[in-house]
Amino acid sequence: MKTWTRRSFVKAALASSAALTLPAVPTLAFAEGGTLADIKKRGKLTVGTEAAYEPFEFVENGQVVGYGHDVLQLMAARLGVRLEQMNLPFQGLLPGLMSHKFDFVATSVGITPERARRFAFSQPVGVVRSVLMVRVDETAIKSDMDIAGKTIGTQMGSSSQPVADEFEKELKAKTGKGYAGTRLFQAYPDVSNALANKTIDVALMPSNIAAVQMRKQPNVFRIAGSIGQPKLLAWVANPNDLEIRKFINDSLDEFRANGKLAALQQKWFGAPMDTPRENYLPQGAI
After folding, report:
1. What would the pLDDT profile of 257-268 be if each residue is shown by its tens digit?
2. Dihedral pair phi/psi, residue 178, rounded to 5°
3. Domains of the chain from N-terminus onward
4. 184: which strand partners?
5. How far is residue 95's CA from residue 10's CA, in Å, rounded to a whole number?
6. How do residues 87-98 score in pLDDT, each as one tens digit?
7. Which terminus of the chain faces fewer neighbouring Cβ atoms within 10 Å, N or C?
8. Facing residues of 83 across strands?
9. pTM confidence score
10. By its UniProt entry, which InterPro entries does this protein fall under (predicted)?
């Protein structure tokens, strides 16, 4: 039997236009969404979320919480309605969006050219970078070039591993020296533990994971820099509901201007994020 991972299901859904135009749950078609007037008449903003990406969205004490949840609460208040945040498997989110099971997808979805041609991406709500985390008492590492000759650790098979390999080539070209060694671990918490007990000098991990570690273990780690290309994360509207996307973007602009967005980023990530308002969509995007 084929195993459907989050990635393989989305790839299959995108490849099959029939999967998008003929929803798997037709009885739910047009149950939600469409226009802002629909939402206000209903008295609730309904969104689909996979709450498994701390601190963007995750479950705590049985409730969906996180940065995205707080932003959604502001949006619901802006509309004068209540928020209903449905926690669903990621593989059901985009098909559910196309059948109007909810008003939009509010989970961390990476912007790719293939997805952007089929779905209406909002402005980026976040960015994930591959950051270099070190111990707070480590004073020799102040920038990315300072990790030449150091032992670096990351999660085996993760998206960070090829970033580490690629950066070592750049490091050798610029300094003539690569890492002292690369250590691979089963999970990111193992990487943090190895850093804390000085098994490694530098931990390479996604910025959201590092933010969680630093919040749970304050005054133990600090960020010394980042390497590789950042990954932009956005929310997704039905391509037929461009009014919904405009509402998301206008709300983000308003919260950015009044400082509420930066305050929430400080709360959940420890620092404001630098997310673009323009030129973030690939060519051919909706």
Report:
1. 999 999 999 999
2. -95, -155
3. 36-128+232-269 (3.40.190.10), 129-230 (3.40.190.10)
4. 154
5. 9
6. 999 889 999 999
7. N
8. 45
9. 0.80
10. Solute-binding_3/MltF_N, TAT_signal
